[in-house]
Design brief:
Length: 174
């Protein structure tokens, strides 16, 4: 019984980005439908709708991108690479990994600095709900870090886990 609870906890922690992205999508959908109804039927718009929508969109994009890296759901044009010899494909694959790592680290560092400079020092908040912009856009560096981890764990973790399988897992496979 305890192992089921531990497994559920591990699955939840490993999918926290998916949970956050899905929650943001649900809130965004509900707020948008309610906003349309209030604006066009009741003729009384929800004034804070745009602020919550922006919050949900930013969080959904960064957390969803992490999920996309983990599941291999991002668009990839592999026609040219697939036409190359296997040895060259492996080299290109490592080159792509380096480019992805460089871009994501660049975004992580620069987004952290940008958010600290523009929103952190000024203390700017949204006009109606007074949500600090650092709460809205502060997810960017964490999202980039999750994207890095998701990309490389999804690509290389199976290689390492096969090398360190437990005897019980090997017995099950036989």
């Amino acid at each position: 019984m305890l192992t089921k609870k531990v497994n559920l906890l591990v699955k939840t922690v490993c999918n926290i980005d998916l949970i956050i992205a899905c929650s943001a999508l649900v809130v965004l959908t509900i707020i948008t439908v309610a906003g349309v109804f209030k604006r066009y039927v009741v003729k009384d718009p929800i004034l804070w709708q745009e602020e919550i929508s922006a919050f949900c969109q930013v969080w959904m994009v960064y957390m969803g991108a992490s999920v996309g890296f983990r599941t291999g759901s991002h668009v990839a044009i592999e026609l040219l690479v697939d036409a190359m010899p296997k040895n060259l494909q492996k080299i290109i694959s490592y080159l792509i990994d380096l480019i992805v790592l460089f871009v994501l680290v660049f975004l992580l560092v620069n987004s952290k600095d940008y958010i600290a400079q523009v929103f952190g020092r000024s203390g700017r908040t949204t006009p109606i709900l007074r949500i600090p912009y650092t709460y809205i856009y502060g997810i960017a560096p964490y999202g980039c870090a999750l994207m890095i981890a998701s990309y490389f764990l999804s690509k290389y973790a199976p290689v390492f886990t096969k090398a360190i399988e437990s005897p019980e897992e090997e017995a099950i496979k036989e």
